[in-house]
Specification:
Elements (H helix, E strand, L loop, with lengths): L1 E10 L4 H18 L2 E7 L2 E9 H13 L3 E12 L10 E3 L6 H7 L12 H14 L2 E2 L3
Parallel strand pairs: 2-5
Antiparallel strand pairs: 1-3, 1-4, 2-3, 5-6
Helix pairs in contact: 3-4
Protein name: BLUF domain-containing protein
InterPro entries: Acylphosphatase-like_dom_sf, BLUF_domain
GO molecular function: blue light photoreceptor activity; FAD binding
Length: about 140
């Protein structure tokens, strides 16, 4: 049974080194657990979709909730899926510095990443559009 979970959180340490540490750990752990996904980070906010087996995704989300590098962790969407949308990435990263801010304005009141201010459905649509139009880093 495949599921997709979408959550938002705030970085406790927004330094580039701390964010890179989270990505590195994800890319090491996720392949052995059958987890794929995509991470969007901007303005101290994470928006992440993770996909995989129900038990593995639930276990990973539980770990994220307890991770001291994240705060204000909020579940935005959880659904059973028939196929992965982000299957090409152990943990791809949307490069927000290369996107057109009009994309962010399409989905929110301001041209900034704020998944706390919109629905989970809107956040997923934004993430899919960002994935389709922005540079994706870390395809491995």
């Amino acid at each position: 049974m495949l599921v997709r979970l979408l959550y938002a959180s705030r970085a406790v340490d927004p330094s580039p080194g701390a964010i890179e540490s989270i990505l590195t750990q994800s890319r090491q752990y996720n392949p052995t657990s059958g987890i794929t996904g995509i991470l969007c980070y901007g303005g101290g906010v994470f928006l992440q979709a993770i996909e995989g087996g129900r038990m593995q995704v639930n276990e990973l989300y539980g770990h994220i909730q307890k991770d001291p590098r994240h705060k204000d962790v909020v579940l935005l969407n959880y659904e059973e899926i028939s196929e992965r949308r982000f299957g090409g990435w152990t943990m791809g990263q949307v490069n927000l510095s290369k996107i057109n801010t009009n994309i962010l304005m399409k989905y929110s009141e301001k041209p900034e990443l704020d998944p706390y201010a919109v629905s989970g459905t809107v956040s997923l649509a934004l993430l899919e559009e960002l994935m389709a139009t922005a540079s994706i880093c870390g395809r491995a």
